[in-house]
Write a structure and sequence with these properties.
Elements (H helix, E strand, L loop, with lengths): L10 H24 L6 H6 L6 H12 L2 H14 L4 H24 L8 H4 L3
């Protein structure tokens, strides 16, 4: 087991952490003050429905990944073996159906959320 001294941040760790915060803040401030391209919520949240498949796919991938999963999955595989990879296969197969069935329907109906489906149905 590592000692408490080994578990602490070193100077290099603090520098990398500070750089991460500064760069992230700079990117946010740059787009906050330089923008003005997005005038409506449709343009801001949906890029006016003009984005290609790659940015949307990367956004969905980032949405599905959480810090807990990124940190926990390697430990789970290390402790219990590679059976956990079947979950990844199920994700892949389970996302194909919504991607090819539901997303095109939502796009044609101009819906952005499943919560809007109830509003668009006749009462």
């Amino acid at each position: 087991m590592p000692s408490k001294e080994d578990m602490r941040f070193s100077t290099v760790d603090y520098i990398i952490f500070a750089l991460l915060l500064v760069i992230s803040s700079a990117i946010g401030l740059y787009y906050a003050f330089s923008g003005g391209k997005q005038r409506t919520t449709q343009e801001f949240l949906l890029a006016n429905r003009s984005m290609g498949f790659l940015p949307v796919a990367i956004s969905l991938l980032a949405t599905f990944q959480s810090a807990v999963a990124i940190l926990g999955v390697p430990a789970e595989i290390y402790n219990n073996g590679t059976e956990y990879w079947f979950l990844g296969c199920c994700y892949f197969l389970g996302l194909l159906i919504p991607a090819h069935v539901f997303i095109p329907i939502f796009y044609r109906l101009r819906l952005t959320s499943t919560y809007e489906v109830g509003k668009s149905l006749p009462h």
